Predict the structure.
Amino acid sequence: MKDVALEDPPIEDLGPAMLALDARQRRFVVGWIQNRGKNGARVARAAGYSDKGEACKVRAHYLLQNPKIQKALHEEAGRRLDGMAAVAVSVLQLNMASANPKARQAAADSVLDRTGFARRTEQVVDIEDKREKRSYDQLLALVADKLQKHNLIAPPAPAAIPAPVVDAEFTEVKA
């Protein structure tokens, strides 16, 4: 992408996320996708943002963090992918008819994967806990040792915590 101004995308082609943006933001989204996600400063400049003091670098960063821009990028990318689906299907059909057996097999696997007939796979995960089993009292002692090692105050053991003392005076009132 050269440093030329981006054109506004036709309003009738835009989805709700793109329509929620102002014109410069929409141009930035389109430019970011056209530039394959590279050089945000250049895209921001082409979208019409000021580059005084290289401000476009900062502007591009903030634009890409903006949830509205992220939603519009997702929407616009999805719209473009939907438009390429027909081309992808025709390529798949060509590969299915290819003289190359590897291309035919890859195309067949791709079709089967996408139509619910994928190969079944199974993964077995065996986890063995080899750590020493410790009682609650052993764990408390371990924590106390670590606290003392780092010159921190050890908490009292639960059995050593005294019950609260309640001291009160009362006067009986007769009605």
In short: The first helix runs from residue 16 to 19.
